[in-house]
Amino acid sequence: MVDTPAPGTVRPGGRTARVRETVLRTAGDLLAQGGFEALDLAEIARRAGVGKTTVYRRWGTPGTLAADLLDDMATQSVPRADTGSIEEDLRANAHLVVKTLTEPRQGRLFKALIAASLCDEQAAEALHRFYATRIEEWAGCVTDAVQRGELPDGTDAQRVIAAVSAPLYYTLLNTGDPLTEADADRAAKAALAAARAGTWSTAAPRGRPTPNCDN
């Protein structure tokens, strides 16, 4: 028995790839304009100039389409910085997040995709994959810093990177305050200070004797 791939997961080249690119771009525009509730497959097919049958056969539901859009965004995201300094790398990460979230289309798109993840399981799983992919991409900055002696041994690289973007997404979604470059600098500085203090280190602190349980 041959397994049938889930809708939106097959990515061949040629015309099919062009159709996918057009549909995803159109879906992103609709999400940015009207949120998840505006993600109507028939309307997307009309705007993209693609047959409705093609869109319904390949994606099937708005949630599947939103998930495919997130997966595509993850593969096309900007590579991590490699400045040779953990301070500068974390600043670059924070500024990239702010730049993305304050860009008119991208900021609205991320809000819509986050909203979609709250009511659609496929979108939620894709959002988790998106953040995991981006955090893993930038985690190399932290592991390199540990090797250079800038951060404690055993520092959890993923947690450090997550700590950079967490306050920025909080501002975007909860306070409504405009994000600025100063916010990016503060987020990077706070995450770096915590990492240097060993907040996310699993290694035993240097200079302290290991307890002897036999005594």
UniProtKB/TrEMBL annotation:
<feature type="domain" description="HTH tetR-type">
    <location>
        <begin position="17"/>
        <end position="77"/>
    </location>
</feature>
<dbReference type="InterPro" id="IPR001647">
    <property type="entry name" value="HTH_TetR"/>
</dbReference>
<dbReference type="Pfam" id="PF00440">
    <property type="entry name" value="TetR_N"/>
</dbReference>
<dbReference type="InterPro" id="IPR009057">
    <property type="entry name" value="Homeodomain-like_sf"/>
</dbReference>
<keyword id="KW-0804">Transcription</keyword>
<feature type="DNA-binding region" description="H-T-H motif">
    <location>
        <begin position="40"/>
        <end position="59"/>
    </location>
</feature>
<protein>
    <submittedName>
        <fullName>DNA-binding transcriptional regulator, AcrR family</fullName>
    </submittedName>
</protein>
<dbReference type="Pfam" id="PF16859">
    <property type="entry name" value="TetR_C_11"/>
</dbReference>
<dbReference type="GO" id="GO:0003700">
    <property type="term" value="F:DNA-binding transcription factor activity"/>
</dbReference>
<dbReference type="InterPro" id="IPR050109">
    <property type="entry name" value="HTH-type_TetR-like_transc_reg"/>
</dbReference>
<keyword id="KW-0805">Transcription regulation</keyword>
<keyword id="KW-0238">DNA-binding</keyword>
<dbReference type="GO" id="GO:0000976">
    <property type="term" value="F:transcription cis-regulatory region binding"/>
</dbReference>
<dbReference type="InterPro" id="IPR036271">
    <property type="entry name" value="Tet_transcr_reg_TetR-rel_C_sf"/>
</dbReference>
<dbReference type="InterPro" id="IPR011075">
    <property type="entry name" value="TetR_C"/>
</dbReference>
